[in-house]
Amino acid sequence: MDTLEIRELRYFVTVAEELHFSRAAERLGIAQPPLSRAIQQLERRLGVALFDRDRRGVALTHAGQVLLEEARVILAGTIAAARRTRRAASPTQRLALATKAGANHELLRRLLDAHSTDVEVTLCGVGEQARMLRDGRADVALMQRPFDDLSGLDTEDLLTEEQVAILPAGHPLAARTRLSMADIRGESDLPVARWPRHDGTYEPGPGPEIRDSFQLAQLVALGQTVAVLCASSRSWLWSAHAAIPLTDAPHVTTVLAWPAHSRSRAVADLVRTATGLADRASKEERQAQNA
Amino acid sequence: MDTLEIRELRYFVTVAEELHFSRAAERLGIAQPPLSRAIQQLERRLGVALFDRDRRGVALTHAGQVLLEEARVILAGTIAAARRTRRAASPTQRLALATKAGANHELLRRLLDAHSTDVEVTLCGVGEQARMLRDGRADVALMQRPFDDLSGLDTEDLLTEEQVAILPAGHPLAARTRLSMADIRGESDLPVARWPRHDGTYEPGPGPEIRDSFQLAQLVALGQTVAVLCASSRSWLWSAHAAIPLTDAPHVTTVLAWPAHSRSRAVADLVRTATGLADRASKEERQAQNA
DNA sequence: GCGCTGTGATACCCGGCCGGTATCACCGCA
DNA sequence: TGCGGTGATACCGGCCGGGTATCACAGCGC
């Protein structure tokens, strides 16, 4: 009746990406005529024009843009479903945790130590955790608010910390005990490093584009840039670095994230371990403040 | 290759729900043999057993349970995608907003007044907003934290308010200026009304099971029950009701919610209107406190 | 023990749909 | 006015999804 089929959605997404039937057909490994026909069928079934076949080019209609968003989510969902199902059947059953390299090493180690069963840790690129959760390569991830895109995920706060400026040890500002964002932005010889945004692009600016923490460490040590990181990054800094607390940078909360509605027993167990840790940590913090 | 098909997922979910091939086939409107074959194909392709065909009965394997969760989400996604695509093509293009009847009437009216373009308001049952968002019947919804299930949705806080106890006007407790939860739970002649949980069931207890606010209003007026509601519910109370502030009930935040990753321009516009309202409201509140 | 009932699995056939090739209609362009 | 390139159309063949008939096997009543 009006039930979309995965094959149709795959075809549609490819055409929408290429905006060219012949190239799309080639990418799909089929001939062009069946592809044209499949898209026509889809449009007929929906009762909606998805493409404007103007002379000189194919363009998405507004409805087509809507379907493109939806279809991408659905396709990612199906491959995630297949992956998760296979993983659920595998005898090892190790929970897969994705985390950005270099982020909160200490926290992660405490979490793994506290957890009874085995966890497989995957280090992924900056901001890639969400994708790994969505396509089923990971069951849980360590992510950071407000940097990472947490929409569509359930989360549990683990740790909130202030941010610090990472400077070359010899830099004049490195002698200060605290800095403001204005201080480091004012250093025209030391542009602020730029992290990728949710969509993987970088906002324009003079600073270098950062892909991973190690690259950043090296650039700072070379005196090329200054970076803003959460305080726990101190654990992997070099002697050539100086970390100065920032008074006016937003606090960063590291969270444990997992796909919304995940009913996995193993995920639930890890979350329980994590909340236990977080509770203990906040209790210790209160005691330290009282003392 | 290993690409799940919607038809297979639909078949699988039906069998998983019925745990009986013949009945499932009947529900699907096909014969039993093709259904058996389809499930076998699915299992072969995944390389995973989804059902335990024990003598005397069919049961889901662990992997099958995982796939069932995933498949339900995907199927809901496809019908939502079709609906949203069709709606995007419709000339009227009215934004559909779902809200629980009786919740924050005042707030909603202010929101609609402030918004320039037309919004179609759908009143739905308690806790049904999430389903309407997920299956594409609504673009945005008014929901309440912590009552509603907000997982998988993006939200914007609109208003936080305390809760009040709704009592029959003649009840002894109605003369008090404030109450605690213990006060109203202690009234054995007046059981506390029970709202449905996220899954639609009710936790066991003596109070009546509530489906909508009007039903609740009537039951309270009849002296059958006492209810706990957010303060703004006062706007639709009867003269036969008394609303007494509760000192120890959690605060309730009304939020505007929409599907995560929605790129709809119309949704973004409404959210902007809403945040403008919320900002103005909090500013007025601060001024009131200063005065 | 022996049918009977009801389960899911198997065997086999048929028709429709998906994919292929060949071709058309139509545009921009030299 | 041909020529290259676009997507659409026409038509054909093989595959696969759906059908019926039947089997294998368990529980059950006699």
UniProtKB/TrEMBL annotation, chains A, B:
Entry keyword annotation includes Ion transport: no
**Keyword hit for Lyase:** no
Keyword field = DNA-binding, Transcription, Transcription regulation
Pfam families documented for this protein: HTH_1, LysR_substrate
Gene3D superfamilies for the chain? Periplasmic binding protein-like II, Winged helix-like DNA-binding domain superfamily/Winged helix DNA-binding domain
Q: Which InterPro entries match?
A: LysR_HTH_N (IPR000847), LysR_subst-bd (IPR005119), WH-like_DNA-bd_sf (IPR036388), WH_DNA-bd_sf (IPR036390)
Q: Which SUPFAM superfamilies match?
A: Periplasmic binding protein-like II, Winged helix' DNA-binding domain
Where on the tree of life does the source sit, at the highest rank?
A: Bacteria
**Where in this chain does the record put each HTH lysR-type domain?**
4-61
What stretches pass through the bilayer?
none
Return the similarity comment: Belongs to the LysR transcriptional regulatory family.
Protein name in UniProt: LysR family transcriptional regulator
Q: Which organism is it from?
A: Luedemannella flava
